[in-house]
Amino acid sequence: MQRFQSLTKPMRCRPRSTRSICSSAPNHDTDRKILSLTLTEARAALTEGRVTAVELTESSLRQIERLGALNALVSVRDTEQLLDEAADADRRRLQLQRDGCVVPALLGVPLTLKDNWCTAGLRTTCASRMLEDFVPNYDATVSERLKAAGGLLLGKTNMDEFGMGSSSRWTPFGAVCNPWSASTGPQARTAGGSSGGSACAVAARMCFASVGSDTGGSVRQPAAMCGVVGLKPSYGTVSRYGLVAYASSLDTPGVIARTVADAMIVFDAIAGHDPRDSTSVAADEYPPPRPASSSASKRRLRIGVPKEYHVAELDAAVLAAWHAGAAAFEAHGAELVEISLPHTALALPAYYILAPAEAFSNLARYDGIRYGLRGHGATAEAMRSDARRRGFGAEVQRRLGLGSFVLGRRAVDSYYHKALDIRRRVVQDFDNAFSLAGVDAVLTPTTPFTSGVLDAGTDSTLDDYVQDVMTIPASLAGLPAISIPTQMSKSAADGTPMPL
Amino acid sequence: MQHLASCRRAAAIAAGHNCSVSQWPIRSLQRRTLTAPAAASWQPVIGLEVHAHLATNSKLFSDAAAAAEAAGAPANTTVAMFDAALPGTLPVLNAASVDLAIRAGLAVQATVNRRSSFDRKHYFYPDLPHGFQITQYYAPVVSNGHLDVPTAAGGTRRIRIARMQLELDSGKSQHYEQHGGQTLIDLNRAGAGMLEIVSEPDIRSSDEAAAYVKKLQHLLRHVGVCHGNMELGEMRVDVNVSLNRTDQPGVRCEIKNINSVRNVARAIEHEIERQAALLLSGQKIFRETRAFDAARGVTVPMRSKEDEVDYRFMPEPDLPVLIITESRIETARGGMPELPDVLRSRLQSEYGLLPADAALLVDQHVAGYFEQVARPGDGKRAAAW
Question: Could you give the CA distance from residue B217 to residue B215 in angstroms, rounded to a whole number?
């Protein structure tokens, strides 16, 4: 099993190896060819010996360096070590193939992890000053399983602090820019959030896939903004052990990749029961895998289109894409059915009560005493206050204040308990759709509008919150959901993706 | 004479009269007659919360060793990552703890709830790493039991046990005045599993309270739930005391962290005197949390009077609902030793022991050894041994 080596410098490091990793023209063409491969294609190429893990890694690292201005990565691992690991992977692959043994699913494939996944010996900041120098002494289950599958961890990706945000601008490491932007800087487009760094890294070909976390849409929405696939599986199918908690009953590990097939490969490598996570689905509760596409399948796929998602904020272009997507499914033989999910409108406010409440609870541990930013003060209270004031950014402080309020004795019944009730009703809506209306899946846009400009000037956080209106219901219900890019918008000056 | 005097004094206190320690009994009797109309029918109303450390190998939600204190472990050596609340760590319930909770419930004829759940109780203190305690606020694992204790009058009083809940203990803080007032934190105890046993306010005197704690301590030891060594912190008691009158309900004061049976009685006695003194001089009693200063024998304020902490209770999202099946309860029941009262009667009937001897064997937890040594009929000789 490969072990991640400790990072020698806290900041992003320059490649120090003697092997040349500079952007010369020949490299550029090689990189273009290599990085245009999807994960699935790269695996096939590795198997057939058309490319090596070392080449994949070198190309990815050069791309990371080229596109540093996008701020996708917080930490990049040491080049020497990565290339050593890649060479090991190549040797191991040859050995296994010679011996006729099974090759681990991700052997030699360069990947990234969102920076809220604990990686032993590798800084894990959650894009927060509070954990700026925090180096975990253990690996998350996801980190372990990616390693076991042979994946090469290039580095940790940028995000909204502690997962709170939909734009990946709430970070001390510079806002993540959407790779589809015409420019970086103030007019850059947002990559979405909170897994914006992961989505950008995958879309900009810095790695072949990334694992993030999705609480209210934090994998699906940035994947949507960056034109890649974002998978949020069912709550409980992937272990949260080692994921720095934001909202425990909502946090779901998610995969960002270029194609659905890619996403499934990574999902298969990390999914499965984990006794270290008590909310992890037990092995015997797993439904059996659906048999691969049987064209002679007995009945048509029934897809529900919920009328309540036709919200006022819906961009005209997005609406058109929705219709086009529905038509495409129909052309492929699916049956489209209008359904009703009556409590959809209540889901957004319910989420923005429940998630901050759990955040208030999960972030109560950050007092600077045992780890993290240490505060100054004459008393323990003063030290804690100082650490939290300096360590948490504005958005986190906003949500902690909100969470503290809705759990307060006077407010808890009208806010928190009501929100729990709404959550039950949202679950019931989906239950009805799946059992009574008999649909297999629900089709909606991922976001009501396309990627906005980062420095829009209004700085209205409510606008940010509305971004999540389409993704939140599946989060509240713990349902599996996937965002798939469909087409580019024609309305904006720079085309941006509009996914479903 | 002395014995009579203290009996009278105790009666006077129980009746709630203002009794100064330095006065002779005869004088206080006169005093009582004079002030009787005003001070009549103050009734002490006492409830106890007993925190008992579960006798498991590891802590409630982590695999660190549980009994650090007893083992004399150096500071911060039995701390798992979860206990220190490292980011990304999660609780995993120790199954043995649940079995002990079931046993404790069965021992007091309580209902073992088939469904119970965990909640977070938030407050800030440096020795509480998570910033919250995992406890069972909304749905505890055990409810509605009882324990019968002897009263001063010679009868027994049934003390109802409202609930028993599984919860975590915090770490320990040591404050040092020198070196600029440092506080050192030891997390060995953080995450240790406890059973909090909450009684209804059925207790009416300090003696009854002491008897209740003694009986509970013995019972928990007997069924193997808790080792009960209060001086090692394996069991501690919070007391709630108020003085009620039919026309004026009392205001409850809590005395926290009492660490011996004797101190339970002393703390209650002092608190009753303190409250009676305030009431008789026409002052109000403020609801507050106090500590017992064992050296001086008095209760002292702990938190400021206005402070009522809002714990912001929230269901624990990292733990599913705890389901206890019938078969699990039956297995626990089958594995339990005979309860003390039953055992005492059986020793008397089967071995012909005197009640006092039978009681002694049971109290000292040596009945099992006795039975191995004795042959039926030869009981008295073995008992003498």
Answer: 5
Q: Do B90 and A370 touch (CB under 8 A)?
A: no
Closest residue in chain B to residue A134, using alpha carbons only? B87
The overall average pLDDT reported for chain A is 88
Rounded to an integer, what distance in angstroms lies between the CA atom of residue A141 and that of residue A9? 25
Query: Does residue A203 carry a pLDDT above 60?
Result: yes
Nearest CA in chain B to A162: B87
Q: Residue B28 belongs to what H/E stretch?
A: helix B25-39
Size of interface A-B (CB pairs under 8 A): 96
Cis check: omega of the bond before A489, within 30 degrees of 0: no
Q: Where are the alpha helices (DSSP H) in A178-226?
A: 196-203, 220-226
Closest Cβ opposite residue A279 in set B84, B313, B320: B320
Which whole number is the average pLDDT over A7-30? 48
Of residues A68, A76, A38, the one with CA closest to residue A56: A38
Nearest C-alpha in B relative to A247 = B317
Average pLDDT for residues A286-297, to the nearest whole number? Answer: 55
pLDDT for position B6? 45
How many other C-beta atoms can be found within 10 angstroms of the C-beta atom of residue A269?
24
The structure's pTM equals 0.88
**Confidence band (pLDDT; 50, 70, 90) for B177?**
confident
Residue A334 DSSP symbol: -
* A242–chain B Cβ distance below 8 A for any pair: yes
Contact B88 A242 (CB under 8 A): yes
Check: complex ipTM more than 0.95 = no
With vertex at residue A258, the alpha carbon angle to CA A255 and CA A259, rounded to the nearest 5 degrees, is 90
A396 in contact with B, Cβ within 8 Å: no
Catalytic residues of A: 114, 194, 218
Nearest CA to A133 among A9, A294, A239? A9
User: For the segment B19-31, what is each residue's pLDDT rounded down to a tens digit?
Assistant: 444 433 444 333 3
For chain A, state the CA radius of gyration.
Answer: 22
pLDDT at A315 (0 to 100): 82
